Write the structure tokens for this entry.
Amino acid sequence: MIIYLETNSIMAIAKGRNKELEDFVHHSSENLKFVIPSICLMETLVAIEREEKRSQSFSQTIQKIEEICFLPNYWV
């Protein structure tokens, strides 16, 4: 049997968000074949890049806020 993994499934496994799916894929019988369509692989790569950029942007924003809030005499 062939099972196609779509973008959300790949993301869930890659990010560790769906342990049951991950276990199913890793411990399935040899009768099952998993296929990832190339478009889903590309969508996953783009989504991961976007998440990383968002995370970096968020971290930079938090760092700027911390720098402002902890300036000497800011809370006087």
User: Anything to note?
Assistant: The CA atoms of residues 7 and 43 lie 6 Å apart.
